[in-house]
Amino acid sequence: MKRSTLFIMLSFILISSAFSQESMFKALYVFNFTKYVDWNDNTGKNFVICIIGQSDITDNLVRISKTRKVNNRTLEVKTINENGVLSKCDIIYVPKSSSNELDKITAHYKDARTLIITEKNNSLAKGSCINMVSTNGKIGFEISKNNCGAHHFAISEKLFGLGTRID
Amino acid sequence: MKFIYILILILSITTFSINAQQKEVSKLTKEEILKMSVTDLADYDLESLMQMMNIVGASSIDEMYKMILNQNVTIASKSNEKLFNSALSTSVINQKEIKSSGATSIEEALRLIPGVIVREKTQGNYDVQIRGNQNILMYGDLANAENSTTLVMVNGRPVFDNAMGTTVWETLPVSINEIDRIEVVRGSSSALYGPNAVSGVINIITENSTDSEDEPALSVNYQGGVPGTHIADLTLKKKFKNDLSLKLTPYYVSRQRRSEKVYLFDEDTYSDIDTYSQLYSDVDVKGVYSDPKKTKEKKGVNLYIDKALKDVGNISLSGGYLNSDALTSSLKVVSGTSYACRESEAYYANLDAKLYNFNLLASINSNVQNYDKTYATYKVDRDQYNLLLNYTYNLKSLKIRPEISWQKSSFANRKYTSSESGIISGGADLSNYAGDLHLEYGAFNDKLKIIAAIRDEKFNSPDLWKLSWQFAGTYNINDKNMIRVVASKSNQSSTMKAGMLSYSYSYSDETLGDILYNFNRKDDSELMSMNTFELGYRCRPAKNILLDFEAFYNKGQDYGFILPDSTAMSTSTGVTSIYTSYHNFDLVSKQIGATINCKVVLSEKFYFNVNATWQQLKLDNYCDQNLSTILTDQMTEYYTDYYTDLYTGTTKDEYSSSLQPDSYQDKVKNEATPSFWGSILLNYKPIEKLSISAQGYYYGKSYTYTEYDDQDSKYATGNMDSKYIINAKVNYNINKKVSVFFNGRNVLDNDKREFVYMDKIGGVYLLGLNVNL
Asked: What is d(CA B70, CA B66) in angstroms, rounded to the nearest whole number?
């Protein structure tokens, strides 16, 4: 009994403290998306990326934020707990594990200049602007011009070319 | 102004540096990308990152297919080919599979291979059988319960022990972490690999040092835990600019068991060493069993030198030293117990030169082997030489490979016995030379392949020629379905028993008085041989699934054992003389069976492998007699004459009998091999840094036949229960260079015995560390 408890605890600790190569690329994609969007601001305020719930990309984005800026704005990474208060964000990232929050998020940020990025199938139909997909170990993304437009963003045509445009 | 110049200079250098660092993405390798940190990668634009993702991501699933489903093998035809197209029943496990499974030894890794039965005698010491088919005589000492018909090789160099006619696993000079892959052929393959490839061939191939990076590479592996287990090795690699590579691999293994007891036949109990010592005061029990918990200690070092010759080939030279101790099963019970402490010290050198279409293999292994430290004459100096040369012609669709080879084993025990009367009479040689021809013909764009191999081999003792052959055909119905058929004949090599033993000794028996026991060497002994017939089918119903099915029929003949020729009693001296020699029997073994293996890669994160084997073994012309019963019959015959003459007062000087058994049975079931066994391996990598492997291994009931079997005994029974074993390994990569792991072998602590009269084998729980610099 003691051995099995030790085994389970060890596995749990290792799983919970780990993050993947895939999550690193997802964080890099998110950071790079900012370069293709006209943020149309010079506020000098921090550029805030909000992540709903726990995600492996958080640590990677925090690392990037220490050495990189967006539009000359300091990059800030915030974690918003599920069912937590939704604050002002430039990007909101909804991991697959928090995708049941998506309806609430799209409703909250309707018309706001907030780029919604998701990682679950069919999320564009629910109002997400960019949805990251993993096929055979390769990360790609699908993008909705209409959904981005609804949030008043002008997106570079190059980004539409790199991803899979659905409208 | 100066400030502006300096600024421009700094900016230029910085820009240049960034550009220099930002190697063209398409030229980056997966390893180079994976070495970059997230902040390094943040310098790249999205398009470059997506290109990198293609390199990293695409290769992960493709590599998984390649690693698990589309492996290459060389063992089936001595040339590189896809496993799917292999004509023989072939399996391979590679380094990644071995490491992720957590196998702590080569023998344990073989539990991943379909059709292989691996049973642990004491912690870290095993008997390994391909398709079983052993213990055919249903009688004999413990050596007869072990595998004697599989050829094991390290980098193509045979490591079969001709002295005892088996593989002494602890003397294999290789550590688990330096293995690149293990290739296995099930079924007779002497025509390709020479004698002893009867039930199959196992080739252990070490990692090629030319694969190392330009920089010196150091890797350190350690795992340790309970009961008393330490497994450590170190690899140092260096590749020089002139295509010369060096690799040095020292290693150390120490294993312990939970018990300190050994089984004593006369007392029918597992006894501690003190009691054993008191009961057998003529044996240095305490000296031999100075650490009765230690089951294995193995320390050695290997040096590999590889030189690639552009447009010519490559030369590999390796050499090493190994010292091993093992507490394992005795070959023959000589000191009251089923256990034996073995010891070996060996040096070896191996040359493998592939130049143009020639392949030259030359090796020497110099070994001091003590098969049982309680018995002086079991210590032998053994020098083994192997030489092989072949040439491959490629004539359009026909491949022709002629080969010549020579092997010699020299034994000497003069240094260790007081006289020339040891079991090999001081010294002897076993040697054989052979010529063989391998033909491979492909038709219809290689959809149809026909393979023929024939080998003729001359042995010095017994003095005879043996012919082995193999015919195989494969037909690729399409890319996803392949059928194959194999027919082959193989033979064992000569061993001490069959070819060179000659000795006599005297002893006293309470009933019979003085006895003179003679073993006479025979030059006309036959070597055991086996015919194999196989049908196979491989299919790939989907890109991620590989199914492999094989049905086999093995027919073995020319088995032999030491039996009495005659017995005589001198009425003047009262001495009974027993004359024995190596007898061949008309016994024929017939085994039928089937193996199925299924490998599925569900995603880059998860794959599993299931295999199962069923078999049935029956004997024809089986004689239910043995040395003891034949001696009794012979003595009964002449004692009848003696007492008759005594009654009439006409006794002769000598009475003798050479009565031999004449009663034989057909279709006798041999249950030494379980009728069913198999394994399942699950490998899950939920995230890049974490991998979890679980393996289940099961074998059914069996019966081990020995001369020690006693129905009235508590322990001396051949009944071996079925057993399941669950292994698990959880590995976590802290970073690119360091990983830690938990490794549980038999985690549920199922402590049933796996080998007759040996230890209960329970769980082993280890924590480990891998460092790659």
From this structure: 4
Q: How many CB atoms lie within 10 A of CB B210?
A: 17
Question: Going along B688-737, which residue ranges are E strands?
Answer: 690-699, 702-703, 719-720, 723-733
Chain A residues touching B45 at Cβ < 8 A: 32, 35
If we measure between CA atoms, which residue out of B117, B118, B116, B137 comes closest to residue B718? Answer: B137
pLDDT tens digit sequence for B128-187: 999 999 999 988 888 889 999 999 999 999 999 888 788 999 999 999 999 999 999 999
Residues in chain B: 773
B57 token code pair: 């991501």
List the end-to-end C-alpha distance of chain B, in Å, as a whole number: 47
pTM: 0.77
State which residue of chain A sits closest to B42, comparing Cα positions.
A28
Q: Counting beta carbons within 10 angstroms of the beta carbon of residue B256, is it exposed (0 to 12), middle (13 to 18) or buried (19 or more)?
A: buried
Q: Given this model, what pLDDT does residue B15 score?
A: 40
Instruction: Give the C-alpha separation, A132 to A61, whole Å.
Output: 16
Q: How far is Cα A137 from Cα B30, in angstroms, rounded to an integer?
A: 13
What count of residues does chain A have?
Answer: 167
Question: What is d(CA B195, CA B486) in angstroms, rounded to the nearest whole number?
Answer: 18
Angle between helices A57-65 and A21-33 (to 10 degrees): 50
Give the gyration radius of chain A's Cα atoms.
Answer: 17
Q: For residue range A4-38, what is the model confidence (pLDDT) as tens digits? A: 555 455 444 444 333 357 788 899 999 999 999 88
Sign of dihedral through CA atoms B718, B721, B722, B725?
Answer: negative
Q: For residue B571, give the DSSP letter.
A: T
Q: Give the separation between CA B571 and CA B9, rounded to whole angstroms.
A: 113
pLDDT of residue B211: 53
Q: Tokens in use for B618?
A: 């029956």
The answer to whether the Cβ–Cβ distance between B46 and A22 falls below 8 Å is no
Distant-in-sequence, close-in-space partners of B11: CB < 8 Å, separation ≥ 6: none
CB contact under 8 A, B732 and A36: no
Q: Are B205 and B182 in contact (CB under 8 A)?
A: yes
Least confident of A55-64, B63-72, B458-467: B63-72
Write the DSSP assignment of B423-485 as a string of letters. Answer: TTTTEEEEEEEEEEEEEEEEETTTTEEEEEEEEEEEETTTTEEEEEEEEEEEEEEETTEEEEE
Q: What is the ipTM of this complex?
A: 0.86
Give yes or no for residue B754 having a pLDDT over 50: yes
Q: Quick check: B689 and A66 CB within 8 A? A: no
Contact criterion met (CB < 8 Å) for A19 and B689: yes
Chain A residue numbers with beta carbons less than 8 Å from the beta carbon of B52 are: 25
User: Taking the CB of residue B495, how many other CB atoms lie within 10 A of it?
Assistant: 25
Q: Two tokens at A35?
A: 């370069």
Beta strands in B215-357 (DSSP E): 217-226, 229-239, 244-256, 262-264, 269-271, 294-309, 313-329, 339-355
Strands (E), B179-228: 179-186, 200-206, 217-226
Sequence letter at residue B362: A
Q: Give the C-alpha distances (Å, rounded to integers) separating B721 from B264, B717, B729, B764.
A: 21, 11, 26, 21
Nearest to residue B32, comparing CAs of B16, B21, B42, B43?
A: B21
Q: pLDDT digits over B378-407, tens only?
A: 888 999 999 999 999 888 789 999 999 999
CA–chain centroid gap for B450, Å, is 29
- DSSP letter, residue A35: G
Calpha distance B552→B187 (Å, rounded): 8
Q: From the candidates B35, B50, B603, B749, which should be mutated to test the interface with A, based on the most A CB atoms within 10 A?
A: B50
End-to-end C-alpha distance for chain A, whole angstroms: 56
